[in-house]
Request: fold
Amino acid sequence: MILEHLAEAKRHIALGERHIARQIEIIDMLGRHGHPTELATQVLETYRELQITHLTHLDHIHKELEQEVAEPLHFAKSAVAHLRSCSASDGGPLIAAERTRLLNLRTSHFDP
Reply:
């Protein structure tokens, strides 16, 4: 779900960039032809304010994603640190078995 929000926010930002660029073109054209540009400039400012809102929303989504990734990563790092701190004798049979398996794999590659 959050990835859908991320994609939607990026689409809104891209669309906002196009609206802003087009509005600048309109203001330039109006000015070259001697027409008033005040209203078009106000519209441009509205587009820019909306773009700031879209960018802020994107920032919030990025922070949510960071939290979703950080929590499992923190758990995994803690588990690895715990396993590394355990010796084979106090780590239980699973750690002892895993260490034995790894040692057997390592030495089997060097046997003729």
Notes: The radius of gyration is 29 Å. The mean pLDDT is 80. The chain has one domain: 2-108.
